[in-house]
Amino acid sequence: LSVTEGTELVYGLIGKEVQLDPKVTETINNITWKKENNGIAKWDSSSGLYYDDRCRTDQCNLNKSTGVLILKGLKREDKGRYFSEINSKGPAKEFELIVLEPVPKPRVARDCSWTQCILACVGEESNHTKYSWKENDITVKEGNILMVEKSGEQSKSYTCVFSNPKSEEHSDPVSVMDVSPGQSLNIFKKYSVLQYFLHDILDFKLIHRYHDMKVQDLLSVTEVCCLYLQSKCPSAEGHVCQ
């Protein structure tokens, strides 16, 4: 969006109202508000107040003392350039109005290893949206990606904030428990999955026994590894092969 020098950028939320304030310091005897080249509101001391075009049917409110124009019930087509002419002078102030939709609630995707998680926030993006992350209630990072080191601090939680200049939504919090192995997997703190599997890799009888099960006539290598690990650590069942 290109905004000329001296033009004030104003954001409004669809369905809500927005205020355009020319910040007048002199006494107003007459004022005209226009959108592009079309007059939408006018007042002077002799003929009174007149609304036209977008401002008909009680859709605007013009304050004759301050010159402030309020646009009600914003629609997408209300976006554009507005300016005021005060006391029969040229434009006193120009505004570029951008009408925004409220942002939807974002969701968090995660990709975790045994030592860390990469959290990715996903929202319906536009030119005016942005992401940030909170650890508990404190903002810790701007952007949609957060890397979290796994730790034993169970009180921590992470929330993505998705926002535009007029609205914001928070994701469901992701707790440390969500991204860390459960207590039943403490045995793996000393070994990686691969190390643990290789620790007794010569136990071919076990491997063959699981092959003989022939689940749907074929077990993949991954399934064999999972079954093997579960046999060595029964309490890990339901976690290892997820």
Automatic annotation (TrEMBL):
Natural killer cell receptor 2B4 immunoglobulin domain mapped to chain residues: 6-100
Cellular component annotations (GO), alphabetically ordered: membrane
SUPFAM superfamilies given in the database record: Immunoglobulin (SSF48726)
Coiled coil (UniProt feature): none
The entry's keywords: Glycoprotein, Membrane, Signal
Record localization: Membrane
InterPro entries: CD2/SLAM_rcpt, Ig-like_dom_sf, Ig-like_fold, NK_rcpt_2B4_Ig_dom
Name of the protein in its database record: Natural killer cell receptor 2B4 immunoglobulin domain-containing protein
Protein's organism: Scleropages formosus
